[in-house]
Amino acid sequence: MALAYLRFGHTYAQLAVGFSISTTTAYRYVAEAVDVSWPLSHPPSPRR
């Protein structure tokens, strides 16, 4: 679901209909996926 949101720019309402869930649940799922993946894509910078 988060990939559909990020790749295709679907709204939360479109995701909710497509996955048969509420709009609030779609928002929570996308937000959680982004929160989990953010640190993986931005590792800490090396110390000097």
Can you describe this structure?
The protein has 48 residues and is mainly alpha-helical. The protein has one domain (2-39). 71% of the residues lie in helices and 0% in strands. The chain has 3 helices and no strands. It has helices at 2-8, 12-19, 23-41. Helix 2 (12-19) crosses helix 3 (23-41). It is elongated. The mean pLDDT is 87.
Number of helices: 3
- Please bin the fraction of helical residues: over 70%
Mean pLDDT: 87
Calculate Rg over CA atoms. 14 Å
Number of strands: 0
Query: Major beta sheet, specifics?
Result: none
Structural class determined from secondary elements: mainly alpha
Choose one word for the global shape: elongated
Brief overview, please?
The chain is mostly helical and about 50 residues long. It is about 70% helix and about 0% strand.
Blueprint (SSEs and pairs):
Elements: H1 2-8, H2 12-19, H3 23-41
Notable characteristics:
mainly alpha; 3 helices; 0% strand
